[in-house]
């Protein structure tokens, strides 16, 4: 068996490199303010936003049926109607959706220490951004956080035949960088997609970002390594390579 050093790192985007959940919450707060000040909603404003959050978490998007803008405007329209009753109000739903979306994108930024880490890592290994999600939504986030220049390649699940955890998207990513799965490390915050996918594809290692100290279910995939912040990665990669060096 040939022991290989890490040659490439695949990063997830949402809640790994950028705080998507926090940005989304800020978007919801702006919508609550709008509904309360302009439309004089009271507690219904928060109820509507909670309902939309649930709809987003259960979202099934099929590009052949609709576009993401129509689908997400419909989440707001349904939430408003379920809460307030009466006839559907598409115009208000659009206003809420676009305010939530624009606020969310404004807060999707790469922190300075993350930028510095990526810049340093790229001197040693190849970097690839591997994100699941609908094409337009993910490309808008990538544009908003201006992360393109930190990566050798960017792969969006919604543009591929299969998303994480399917091995095919990992093999495609390896081919883009000219590396083998055994050369690569996957870093992400989601056990079911990032970690399971890395395991399925036979990558050298998987690194789970567990910011909140969550205890995974016994049935969850088991990552090779667990860190609380993506900023711990350079030291971890060094220790992985040291193990290879010692074994050799």
From TrEMBL:
Its cofactor is Mg(2+). The keyword Translocase does not apply. Its EC number is 3.1.3.29. SUPFAM superfamilies: HAD-like. Signal peptide: none annotated. It catalyses: N-glycoloylneuraminate 9-phosphate + H2O = N-glycoloylneuraminate + phosphate; N-acetylneuraminate 9-phosphate + H2O = N-acetylneuraminate + phosphate. Transmembrane segments: none annotated. GO terms for molecular function: N-acylneuraminate-9-phosphatase activity. InterPro entries: HAD-like_hydrolase, HAD-like_sf, HAD-SF_hydro_IA, HAD-SF_hydro_IA_CTE7, HAD_sf. Pathway: Amino-sugar metabolism; N-acetylneuraminate biosynthesis. Gene3D superfamilies: HAD superfamily/HAD-like (3.40.50.1000), Haloacid dehalogenase hydrolase-like domain (1.20.120.710). Keywords: Carbohydrate metabolism, Hydrolase, Magnesium. CDD domains: HAD_Neu5Ac-Pase_like. It is an enzyme of class 3 (hydrolase). Belongs to the HAD-like hydrolase superfamily. NANP family. This is N-acylneuraminate-9-phosphatase. The gene is NANP.
